[in-house]
Write a structure and sequence with these properties.
This protein is an alpha+beta fold. It has one domain. Helices cover 35% and strands 35% of the residues. The chain contains 2 helices and 9 strands, in the order H-H-E-E-E-E-E-E-E-E-E. The chain has helices spanning 3-11, 16-70, and strands at residues 89-90, 92-95, 98-101, 105-107, 111-116, 124-130, 133-149, 152-161, 169-178. Strands 1, 2, 5, 6, 7, 8 and 9 form a 7-stranded antiparallel β-sheet that branches.
Length: 182
């Protein structure tokens, strides 16, 4: 090839076949990158849902543990108002906080902890009811049991987070509390 022919060939640019091959490769590379980012996002969402459920369980168990420790074990009752006997299980509890001591414990108003709302796959609300005031402690609670064993109260709880499919994550926790006040 002579130099003039070589320079003319470079001036014409890419052929149609070369352009199609380059475009096809670019589409595959961008498609693979998009799929990788999508999978990474799904994994991050799954981890986020798992953390959210675990944080719900932890936060509620810590709050209830503090309330029960401040409460009078003698005032711990089932939701129907009957006394918790050794080994009995209920889906909530009533307890009075001890506010002082003057020969005997001085207790405050009765506080009730229970699941509220209709049973649903996405869970229910765990609420604290004290008189007319109802406070939601957590949403998405899928299980809550209270059991008395001797001087201890055992709380079992589970919570869920995420869409109602295989991406849904659930966390469980248990707390054993020995009441400080008789």
């Amino acid at each position: 090839m002579t130099p003039s022919r070589l320079s003319r060939r470079h001036q014409r640019g890419l052929s149609l076949v070369e352009t199609l091959i380059a475009s096809t490769l670019a589409v595959f590379v961008f498609g693979a990158a998009t799929a990788l980012l999508s999978a990474s996002n799904d994994l991050a969402q799954s981890a986020s849902h798992e953390r959210t459920a675990a944080m719900r369980v932890d936060r509620v168990l810590r709050t209830l543990g503090d309330e029960i420790r401040r409460g009078s074990l003698a005032s711990a009752r089932q939701l129907d108002g009957t006394t918790f006997s050794d080994g009995e299980v209920d889906t909530g509890l009533q307890i009075r906080p001890v506010e002082g001591f003057a020969g005997s414990p001085i207790t405050g108003d009765l506080a009730e902890y229970r699941l509220d709302g209709a049973i649903a796959p996405e869970g229910r609300d765990l609420v604290r009811a004290e008189g007319p005031v109802i406070t939601t402690l957590a949403r998405g609670i899928t299980g809550f049991d209270v059991r008395r064993v001797g001087n201890a109260i055992i709380l079992d709880m589970s919570a869920a987070s995420g869409p109602l499919d295989d991406r849904r994550r659930e966390a469980e926790g248990q707390l054993i509390i020995v009441a400080r006040n008789p």
